[in-house]
Amino acid sequence: MLGWELPPHNSGGLGVACYHLSKAMAIQGASIDFVVPYAAEHESIDFMDIHSATDLSPLERYGMGAYDSKFALEHADEDFGDLKDIRGVQRQYTRFVEGFVKKKSFDAIHAHDWLTMEAGIRAKQLTDAPLVVHVHATEYDRAGGNYGNPIVHEIEYQGLMVADRILAVSEITRQIIIDKYDIPADKVEVMHNAIDTASFDDGYEYDRRTYRYLEELRNEGFTVISTITRFTIQKGLEYLIRATAKASEKYDRIVLLLAGDGEQRDELIELASELGISDKVFFTGFVRGKQWRDAYSVSDVFVLSSVSEPFGLTALEAAHHDNAVIVTKQSGVGEVLHSIFKYDFWDIDRLADQIVGIATSEALQSSLKQNIAQEYARVSWNDIAKRCMDVYKSTARPKLQVAA
Amino acid sequence: MSTRGITLYLHVHQPLRVREYSVFDTALDHNYYVEPDTQSDRNNEKIFRKVADKSYLPMNALLQKLLDTQPDFKVSLSITGTFLEQAEQWAPDVIASFQKMVKTGRVEIVAETYYHSLAFFYSLPEFERQVEQHRLKIKELFNVEPQVFRNTELAYNDNLAQWADKQGYTGILAEGWDLILDWRSPNYVYQPEGTENISLLMKNYRLSDDLAFRFSNKEWQEWPLTVDKYTEWATASIADQPLINLFMDYETFGEHQWEATGIFDFFEDFVGRWLANPDNTFYTASGAIEANKPVGTISMPSTVTWADAERDLTAWTGNAMQQEALGYLYALEKDILRTNDQALIDDWRRLQTSDHAYYMCTKWFTDGDVHAYFSPYDSPYDAFLYYLNVIRDLRWRLHETHKTGGLRG
Questions:
Q1: Which residue of B has its CA nearest to A217?
Q2: What is the ipTM of this complex?
Q3: Which B residues in the span 11-40 are in contact with A, Cβ-Cβ below 8 Å?
Q4: Segment B105-155, tens digit of pLDDT
Q5: Is there a single domain that holds both residue B90 and residue B22?
Q6: B320 with A210: Cβ contact below 8 A
Q7: B206 in contact with chain A, both atoms CB, cutoff 8 A
Q8: Domain range for B54
Q9: What is the architecture, at CATH level 2, of domain A13-194+380-395?
């Protein structure tokens, strides 16, 4: 498997998905070699072999390249020789994979996102093993619905063309691959992500003091709307803030918790202020651990406001923490949930209506919460791993007899 | 004919900066002003001690020396309560050196708000309480009664002058802004529009800012500023006029212009050179008013300050964040005062210090570098978030301790 990150050295959801998929497949009997572009310990991972393509530390390997097109071709000041930008790291990664596949044989090459697609193509050329490209996000998503970086776009196109099978994390992503990259529809199938609820059973108990002010507002009848995300244009937070302002005009007892950080932060602070609702918006900065879990717990309504979101695992996490959930129609996670509200990312009137509706109706809020609780964990990583193994089998070269 | 003189007026102030007070502190930790990191630029004690060493102690020593050696040297000071509280805590020698100077009788203390606030523009009763609190503090420490008033940031309009007139002040200070003066010179005493007895002294901003802002600027075509040159300019400015009002931040000496720029030597030499001419003297603010009758009336219906190219309040109240923050703060006035909880009231008043709003200023362009220099925060947005969280915590304390009926107020 060719990936860019694994927990705990991940910058976001890509590493989490790779981790759970690999783990579930290992349980199904797959033998996995996972290549990462950095050198570090992964203490909690004993179900597969992890290989480091470079000596870089996890902090030096441009992890944000998986999430933000802007990072893709930015040069850093530090001198890592040939590894001085993300393209350099990718070249080294590809060289490593070229050497690696000569030493060992494989039934399938499974490459995750644009960062490893070139290495995947080379591995396929050298081994003739089938290439499965797994798309967690496209450049189109990262650029907030725009074309994005042409070089990244081209790499994705090449990878998708050469791939034997393509796995897309949602129907939305599948359509982007078909429409924006001109890939034959029958080559692409949907493989939704799942939530591993067991990983949340670590003795966690909600601490009401973490967001004590918000808890007191809840006692006074306020409804806490939240989102936990990176503050980038892809996430559509400007629309969420505008909708909150609009909703407050109709019903004052709502507040918005914005957990996270990112390049758009200052703009969002300014926007809230221009709309006169700074007092209703709570900026936490980057949250992890207890502050991260408690952010879900203090929240009543979670909004996934992305302009373009291939999947959107945070919606499932929010559901696990007893939230009512609203997602944009442009978010893939909406395909696996039913008891939610959906809106077009730009439709602030509709979102404001939905927020007011949930905040003013106890019955609506509790039925959304109860019903989503039946839905959010219906798909498991085991199911996904099984399907993934089937995909491998369907692409297997008859002449090759290689042990997994 | 009266002797021509310089009215040197220095403003002494240090804000109590808010620490990085997050959502996670709100409603739990009521410490807003004590930053535990001793190296932080938000550590008030560290900053105060630094400025005391660089500016307050050496400049007071120099002022004392000039008072001792030059019988005609005089100076006026406004010293905020926020400054005095910090000095009492961390640098009592600074207080002692001010007290010694005031005892000479040639150092005048000017009245203002205790908290260096813009309360005049938000709540007249609160403004008056802070002026009274400052009066009591000055009386306690220096045993004098201020006669001349200056508002925070020299923010001045006709209403303020009329208020000060009714309070019995003999004088009030303002910026000598070209758009107001038009063809007139700042080098005279004026009478504010609609007043009976009070006189107006206006800052000669060119000669003041030559020292306060330009002195060490190597890009300035007049750099380096010599005593010869500055004396020549001052003499030219005052030819057949009675006054030069040099108004500036006290911290010009040693903090804004470091010792290495030569500012202390320059100042000492200039005072000596100025007084070497028997036609020249120094005035306190009251002295300038006593010696000179108003030559005309000045009206400023809109507020004029001594800040920025615009000389208005936009550095403090110009953007939506500042307006919101101050709006939330002053909305708490009645509830806070009703509690009689002195710790809570003090914390609320400390948030009125204008510097907090200044740190939220986003007009980085023409005046940007000045603002960047004075902010201890990463950005105006950070300053705003910390401040907002403190306001929320004040609401929490009101609600928790005084049962004001909820966080909504």
A1: B407
A2: 0.87
A3: 22-24, 26-28
A4: 999 999 999 999 999 999 999 999 999 999 999 999 999 999 999 999 999
A5: yes
A6: no
A7: no
A8: 4-298
A9: 3-Layer(aba) Sandwich (3.40)
